[in-house]
Amino acid sequence: MGVENITTLFAQELSVVNLGLESFAENLKAQGVATVQVDWKPPAGGDSKLAALFDRIEANESLDVAAANQEAFKRILSGKPTLIGIGRAIDDLPGMKKNLILHAGPPVKWQDMAGPLRGAVIGGLIYEGLARTAEEAEKLAASGEIEYDPCHHHNAVGPMAGVVTASMPVWIMENAAHGNRAYCTLNEGLGKVLRYGANSKEVIERLKWMETELAPILCDALELHGPLDMKNLIAQVLQMGDEGHNRNRAGTSLFIRELAPYLVRLDHDKEKLSKVLSFMHQNDHFFLNLTMPSCKCTIDAAAGIDGSSVITTMARNGTEFGIRVSGLGDRWFTGPASVIDGLYLPGYGPDDAARDVGDSVITETTGIGGFAMAAAPAIVKFVGGSPALAVQVTTQMYEITVGENDTYQIPALDFRGTPTGIDLLKIVETGILPAINTGIAHKDPGVGMVGAGLVKPPVKCFTDAFEAFAARYT
Q: What is the pTM of this model?
């Protein structure tokens, strides 16, 4: 460009497009220059190794990740989670045994278990009558006579510690569109409960009541009602201020409305029926153990698709956070469980908190939970933050997902579908991690719930999975 052209250029009113550091744009704006800031980051955060892997994936002309992900997305959207009954873990869960204890998250050995999981295992052994005291249970748990396996290996999910033992009643959820099933225990409530690692006498007595009275009564009512369309219920609760993970007030209310006409027709003692209704009424989280298997049977239909980078499992055991990817089979990729940023119950603080734990993050894989926080601004009273943050979180999740849900919609975003189908490649490319809201358990066995908050998963599990994906498909 000649001197004359440069002179002409700078004689005009300039508009600047700035990429990268915002400080450059701010300095120009301070001088009165019209400036557009472009939020740009180098792919994979500028990591040359990861960028090279992206190049290798793109160079594979026989691989069509977008098409594979669209197939996974289609299976997620076509899913029809349907509640068909209540069973018993030993009778209904594939591969369940008397000496087997299922837990949340990826595989973990007894010696590596976090406090809440240890506390729940101890409680589970007492509940099953395999031990009389916590000391006996702890000795048995470490003896080698008890086997441990993730809930996910048995088509199940468990909130927080996620412990499932042989005698526990379980919801039976069937994906009517694809024929696969998922299972989950019934929700105990908040506070001192087994899933948060508590194992006192009152915890065991409540579990026994749930086994002998709550589950049979609900099972009878559900038989009268017939199969319950969970997808329809979840769609409704998003219109009513729930997000399906840590806020379930509307969901629990709708479930009570569905079953109440059938409960009153049962030939059961009225006091027992009243106790069942009161228990659900006082437990706003009762619906959580229904959304979890709903999401599990929905996302499982999208597993095993060759070339798909859609994440089909996210789960944590208090020690590690693990993911599984559709195109990489059943292989787990893990990183250290994260510290939760949250609100605490009176008398507790960050020093009391265990690390992130639970299978409930399965909800995010199908577009609810943290991905639908904009639908539930009141959730911030439970997990912290602000209503504006709830909208911001959901909006950002569109950047790492395959598409928008055609059933789960958010009123505050003009009924835009929730971000659905978490894409591993987009996570690594953008550096945006999945949004998760969760409860907080005490770090020591036997204590229980101490708070709730927001948490970011470890980057390591995603980069490890990405490297494996590149190795598999290049």
A: 0.91
